[in-house]
């Protein structure tokens, strides 16, 4: 939620000279994305997003992220299209950082998703999975269960500062996800499809953005992340109507395998654990007042408590017929 | 440099229903302005800036600020035009705050002004003064010399925390500005025409923004503020070529009176003192890590040291012929 790097018109003009985007008219730092600096540009050819990649995004991963967006956009997924420079490259350098220019997508992210929004995002997620099926590059998930254990080693001594007893709770979750599913359908997943990464216009998805966690992993794990991100209310109660809508939207494009359905409770618990752990790590290590949004790990601890009590996938609203 | 208030599409849609701006396509919080929350909107009719007025801006002053912008825009000054609602009002309420919608101006602010930029901004300032001459409303300067003394009372006990000896220096400045000019031409001044409030396109001024310090005061005091804001280098050396260009640009529209020229050293010292004091107050009172840009008061202490040594207005580059 912050612009980290200021850029001058001269620097930006020199950078843009290689891109076929016409004359620069304005650029504004926007409060979007937590990891990078983003600018909204107006040029004589239209609107674009300029991203400067800051900490946490590995430059070596950029060809995967930008290649994926280009692949998806060309297959009709509503996601930004990276603009190619005259030399064919999509990644340049600006203010000493890797930088890319992508098309701007109109639309608004929804602060309070309805079941209809959940249905639409479920459908969009399945369409993304289908469109990515023949994307040739691969990227391992840098936040897979093995990494959760590493994060936990860095946090556990101080976890009870957040809430007494938290360390013991989390140990039980880590033990549970030790039985992580191994033989479910895999493919390219978005891995961070939270509401602020999905734009809507007139009730329809108009844009999926922020592919900087995308990787190859279990497709149903992506659904589990969406259930966590879209189907809990502010009081962290699970809204099964929203869950059912999201799952039905997804299955209208790609029906789930029985093994994926059966694994949903464990995948949802694992996904909640992953977001709890990264939030906990940030909570404990980022100084107060840094220009980074520190999100409360307790929101995900409370999701974990819900998932622990689940007795079967039907409780998420999945159609078992 | 921060968005303070998040708004939902529902709230924004309800707010916009009264404005003739077509269908909302997107809105992005932008990192612009230090006092308010600003959003860049795209609608089917074009681009607009939505401002939510936060702390420090008095709601009672908004009719003056917005009325002034409308007056100036209609006289051909490149400044935002407030959009009137169907009921004729320009000020509404959004997220519990006063809010206004203004036209978006293309252009970029210059991080490193050249003498040519200084000449253009001088000319634009004089045109603003001329166009505002028949604006019927008035607003007292809330940061005039009497208020400097009040701010100083709140800061002086801790001023030496910033630099030892600072309190004694500032007392001398306050004594000097006690002989503040009383009979120079007055009118509506911008009072905050820093580089980030002036947009350029193709070397010409394309927009003057942020009228939220505008008030009735000495016209030459506005010039003095521009000399401080535009004509010092990063090392706080005064660039007399830029000063001469700014003053010549101004005088190409409105030649200065001899009394204004003679008063320049004192006005420049007073203006530097005003910005030093508000920065010092923020520096000492705003907690580290608040979402507010705390600017270094020493940048203005060093300008004050320059102005104290001035022996005559010619040293600013004013044409005394």
TrEMBL record, chains A, B:
Q: In which pathway does it act?
A: Amino-acid biosynthesis; L-threonine biosynthesis; L-threonine from L-aspartate: step 4/5
Q: The Aminoglycoside phosphotransferase domain covers which part of the protein?
A: 27-256
List the molecular function annotations (GO) for this entry: homoserine kinase activity
Provide the protein name.
Homoserine kinase
Q: Span of the secretion signal? A: none
Show the catalytic activity.
L-homoserine + ATP = O-phospho-L-homoserine + ADP + H(+)
Quote the EC number: 2.7.1.39
| InterPro entries for this protein | Aminoglycoside_PTrfase, Homoserine_kinase_II, Kinase-like_dom_sf, Pseudomonas-type_ThrB
* Enzyme class label: transferase
Q: Which family does it belong to?
A: Belongs to the pseudomonas-type ThrB family.
Arranged from A to Z, the UniProt key words for this protein are: Amino-acid biosynthesis, ATP-binding, Kinase, Nucleotide-binding, Threonine biosynthesis, Transferase
Which residues, by range, are in coiled-coil regions? Answer: none
What is the gene called? thrB
């Amino acid at each position: 939620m912050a612009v980290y790097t200021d850029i001058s018109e001269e620097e930006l003009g020199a950078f843009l000279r290689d891109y076929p985007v016409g004359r620069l008219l304005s650029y504004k730092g926007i409060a979007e994305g937590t990891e990078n600096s983003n600018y909204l540009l107006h040029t004589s050819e239209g609107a674009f997003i300029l991203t400067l990649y800051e900490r946490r995004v590995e430059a070596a991963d950029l060809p995967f992220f930008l290649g994926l967006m280009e692949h998806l956009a060309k297959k009709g997924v509503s996601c930004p299209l990276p603009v190619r420079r005259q030399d064919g490259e999509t990644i340049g350098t600006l203010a000493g950082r890797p930088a890319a220019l992508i098309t701007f997508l109109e639309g608004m992210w929804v602060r309070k998703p309805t079941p209809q929004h959940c249905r639409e995002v479920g459908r969009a997620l399945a369409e993304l999975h289908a469109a990515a099926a023949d994307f040739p590059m691969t990227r391992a998930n840098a936040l897979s269960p093995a990494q959760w254990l590493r994060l936990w080693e860095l946090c556990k001594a101080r976890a009870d500062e957040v809430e007494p007893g938290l360390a013991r709770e989390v140990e039980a979750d880590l033990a549970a996800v030790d039985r992580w599913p191994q033989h479910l359908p895999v493919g390219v997943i978005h891995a961070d499809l939270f509401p602020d990464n999905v734009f809507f216009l007139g009730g329809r998805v108009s844009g999926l953005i922020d592919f900087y966690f995308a990787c190859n992993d279990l497709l149903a794990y992506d659904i589990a992340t969406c259930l966590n991100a879209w189907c809990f209310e502010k009081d962290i109660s699970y809204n099964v109507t929203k869950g059912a809508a999201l799952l039905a939207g997804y299955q209208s494009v790609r029906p789930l395998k029985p093994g994926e359905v059966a694994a949903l409770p464990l995948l949802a618990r694992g996904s909640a654990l992953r977001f709890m752990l990264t939030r906990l790590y940030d909570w404990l290590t980022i100084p107060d007042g840094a220009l980074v949004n520190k999100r409360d790990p307790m929101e995900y601890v409370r999701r974990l408590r819900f998932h622990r009590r689940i007795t079967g996938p039907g409780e998420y609203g999945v159609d078992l017929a």
